[in-house]
Design brief:
alpha/beta; Aspartate Aminotransferase, domain 1; seven-stranded mixed sheet; 38% helix; globular; lyase
């Protein structure tokens, strides 16, 4: 019997053509089985016995070590979280901000992060500025020009009292990659040395990140998108200065160096490493599921191999969509990542497009702001799926005859 392929291991990809990896990726059967097995082991050992703790400790350490290797960041600077938003917000809210400080946020950030920054600004009387990167739509052909434009925009919008810059590594709406390493260097040269918070929801297991994580102060990601892992488990990599300067704002027993000493007059009860931002009881079996998915991905090639395959597939999809009359692609040339956003002239409701495609087992999504359609390709995407999506869109346009 031939071994099951990586794609063949995913039930969600057997009965549909899936282009929503940027929202949530499918979970391999092997990873689901690993989660179930872990739960069974915990129940057999006893969910709260002396016998179970060595197993739980091993699960935590082995998973954190694997993530550390993928990120190129020491395990002590990594904390487990439930998702990207908590990974961004938990260390952010503990940073030392003072009345009048300036926060610079790009116009391509996820609403959850923007809302958290606005609430922080309200509570501490901070000012917010917007970094306009949405308009940078050159695509991969003019990557250097995009990078130069981003750096010039930072020079234009940063202020003397800017204490935080918030910018995704990979923009979830346009698919553009931001030059995080160059931005980090620029901020370190600035007089106020702003913190750099990077939403890496679309980066982890999608584009090369090793070396980039280490340049951000907060680099938060999740396992349930491009990593093919379970929802409910993510991580954040933090700089040394964040670990030194940020105090936990949501606190639980995991944050503490020792539970039994909490009643003692201890000025610093928290862990000095990433665990200071971990809170309390979490779902241990998810660790085994994510680790299994990550190891399966590793067996499919390096992060560079994955990235090259994704870019090749996204270029093919971009070119074929570009050939369809009335489709307006957001990027002017093939995308630098697996994210492709577009609109259709004469169609007032993009939800109608998603519903129509869904009836044909083709799944893309609508972005709310801007109101664009978005399709994502991954290493499990194939040419037949791309062909079917392109043909379905072409037929939809022909049948609806947009002006």
């Amino acid at each position: 019997m031939l071994p099951i392929s990586f794609k063949g291991n995913m039930p969600a990809l057997q009965n549909k053509h899936y282009f929503n990896y940027g929202g949530q990726g499918p979970l391999p059967t092997e990873s689901l089985n690993a989660i179930t097995t872990s739960w069974q082991i915990i129940q057999k050992l006893g969910p709260f016995t002396n016998d179970v703790w060595p197993y739980i400790t091993k699960e935590i350490i082995s998973t954190k070590n694997l993530i550390s290797e993928l990120c190129g960041v020491p395990p002590k600077r990594i904390a487990f979280t439930e998702n990207v938003t908590s990974g961004c917000v938990l260390p952010l809210l503990g940073l030392p901000f003072y009345e009048g400080d300036h926060l610079l946020i790009s116009d391509c950030e996820h609403p959850g992060i923007v809302a958290a920054c606005k609430e922080l600004a309200r509570k501490k009387s901070l000012k917010i500025g917007i970094l306009p990167v949405l308009k940078l739509c050159n695509g991969d052909d003019n990557k250097d020009e995009t990078y130069t434009s981003v750096l010039n925009l930072i020079d234009k919008y940063i202020q003397k009292n800017t204490k935080l810059v918030v910018l995704s590594h990979l923009l979830w709406n346009t698919g553009q990659i931001m030059p995080i390493e160059l931005i980090s260097k620029k901020l370190k040269e600035h007089s106020s040395k702003p913190y750099l918070l990077v939403d890496a929801a679309q980066s982890f297991c999608h584009i090369p990140i090793k070396g980039v994580c280490d340049k951000a102060d907060i680099y938060a990601f999740t396992g349930h998108k491009w990593a093919y892992g379970p929802e409910g488990l993510g991580a954040v990599a933090m700089s040394r200065r964040v670990l030194e300067e940020s105090n936990p704002t949501l606190i639980g027993w995991k944050s503490l160096k020792a539970e039994e000493s909490i009643y003692v007059n201890n000025n610093i009860p928290f862990h000095s490493d990433g665990r200071r931002f971990e809170i309390a009881t979490s779902c241990v079996p998810l660790l085994s599921g994510l680790r299994t998915s990550l190891l399966m991905l590793t067996n499919e090639g390096s992060e560079t191999d994955h990235f090259l395959k994704i870019k090749n597939l996204s270029s093919i999809l971009w070119e074929r969509l570009n050939a369809i009359k009335n489709i307006e692609l957001v990027l002017k040339s093939a995308p630098p990542s697996g994210i492709i956003s577009f609109t259709i002239n004469g169609i007032n409701s993009p939800e109608e497009v998603v519903n129509h495609l869904g009836q044909k087992n083709l799944w893309i999504r609508v972005l709310e702001d801007p109101k664009w359609l978005r399709a994502c390709v991954h290493i499990t995407t194939d040419i037949m799926e791309i062909d079917n999506l392109v043909n379905a869109l072409s037929n939809f346009i022909a049948d609806n005859k947009p002006a």
